[in-house]
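[User] At your convenience, examine this fold.
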Amino acid sequence: MREFHLTTPIKDEDLEDIRVGDIIYLSGEMVTCRDVAHRRLVEEGRPLPVDVRGKAIFHAGPIVKDHGNDEFEMISIGPTTSMRMELFEEEFIKQTGVKLIIGKGGMGKGTEKGCKDYKALHLVYPAGNAVHAAVRVDRIKDAQWRDLGMPETLWVCDVSELGPLIVSIDAEGTNLFEKNKIEFNKRKEAAIESISKEVSFIK
């Protein structure tokens, strides 16, 4: 496990040496972007009103305080389940050129392919740390698609050293969650066999 500090805009070569299990700390521009925004882009063909090329998106539904006059304060920003975006993520990466996708839990084959073909990473932010993440938001500088409501709005943020972000899919398409499933299933089978011997007297 190694530690990397990335600042947007991020280039393909910045991701070459990063592998699953490594830790990222992100600075620069990050946009919250979840279910409906993905659907609008991929299913409805509506281009994002925010340029995320070389930047990061966060699968999150934050709590934001509106101070008026387009001034906002990030109160809480915790990850939502990334797998909900799996159907759209490969095409999203292709169309937008996003480099870092942050969320909760693993993602699947489509995202693996998108990360490999277009050089991107999927990162996991530890759940339960939404207030800590908000502290890393220096400012909210724009808000788009506000008609979708607070959780689905595209909140455009400047962040400093947001992390730790655990690499779950690297730019080679390697998937940490899938690798772990194989290993854990091996351990499970051995454990079941051992336990079965101990309780074989039970009918």
